C-alpha cells in the first residue's frame, strides 16, 4: 500500500467511526445507550472536521497505513459483533470503553512514530497526542455512564 498523509488517514478513520456509532444506535437491545452512541458519533465527526482543517495547513511525513486500517477494521468488527449480541448494557459500555482505549493507543502509537521520525513535525505529533487524550476522555465519559447506571441499579 502506498504511504498516505496521517491526517488524511485519521480523518477517514474518524468519519468511519462516526458512521459506525450511528450504526450502533440501531441495535435494539442497546437503545438505552443511544445517547452515548450519539455523543460518540458527534465526537468522531468533530475530530474529522478538525483534522480536515489541519490537513489544509500542515504537511507531515507519509505513513504506511495498511496495518492501521487492518487494526481499525478488526476493532470495529469485533466490537460490533460483541455489542450486537450483548444484552447487558454494563458489559456493552465496558466493551465500548475498551475499544475507545484501543483507538487512543493507536493514535498514541502514530504519535510515537512521528516523534521518532527524522522528518518529524512536532506539531503533527502534538495533534495526535491531543487526539489520543480525547479518545481517553471518551473512554472516561463511557465509564462514567456505566458507573451512573450501576449506582442507579444499586439504589
How would the blueprint of this fold be written?
Layout: E1 4-5, H1 6-24, H2 34-57, E2 62-63, H3 66-84, H4 89-116, H5 122-154
Antiparallel strand pairs: 1-2
Helix pairs in contact: 1-2, 1-3, 2-5, 3-4, 4-5
What are the salient characteristics of this protein?
155 residues, mainly alpha, two-stranded antiparallel ribbon, elongated
Task: Explain briefly what this protein structure is.
With 155 residues, the chain is mainly α.
Task: Give the count of helical stretches.
Answer: 5
* Rg computed from alpha carbons, rounded to a whole number of angstroms: 16 Å
Q: What's the total number of strands?
A: 2
Percent range for β-strand residues: under 5%
Order of helix and strand elements from N to C terminus: EHHEHHH
Structural class estimated from helices and strands = mainly alpha
| Sequence stretches where pLDDT stays below 50 over 5 or more residues | none
Please give the order of strands in the largest beta sheet. 1-2
Q: Could you estimate the helical fraction of the residues in percent?
A: over 70%
Mean pLDDT: 85
| Beginning-to-end CA distance, first to last residue | 54 Å
Biggest pleated sheet: 2 strands, antiparallel
The general outline is elongated
Amino acid at each position: 500500500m502506498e504511504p498516505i498523509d496521517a491526517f488524511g488517514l485519521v480523518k477517514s478513520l474518524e468519519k468511519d467511526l462516526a458512521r459506525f456509532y450511528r450504526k450502533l444506535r440501531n441495535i435494539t437491545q442497546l437503545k438505552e445507550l443511544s445517547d452515548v452512541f450519539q455523543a460518540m458519533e458527534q465526537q468522531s465527526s468533530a475530530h474529522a472536521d478538525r483534522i480536515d482543517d489541519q490537513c489544509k495547513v500542515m504537511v507531515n511525513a507519509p505513513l504506511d497505513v495498511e496495518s492501521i486500517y487492518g487494526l481499525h477494521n478488526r476493532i470495529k468488527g469485533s466490537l460490533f459483533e460483541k455489542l450486537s449480541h450483548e444484552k447487558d448494557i454494563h458489559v456493552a459500555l465496558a466493551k465500548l470503553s475498551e475499544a475507545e482505549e484501543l483507538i487512543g493507543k493507536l493514535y498514541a502509537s502514530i504519535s510515537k512514530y512521528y516523534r521518532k521520525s527524522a522528518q518529524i513535525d512536532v506539531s503533527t505529533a502534538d495533534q495526535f497526542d491531543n487526539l489520543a487524550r480525547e479518545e481517553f476522555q471518551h473512554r472516561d465519559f463511557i465509564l462514567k455512564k456505566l458507573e451512573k447506571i450501576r449506582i442507579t441499579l444499586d439504589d
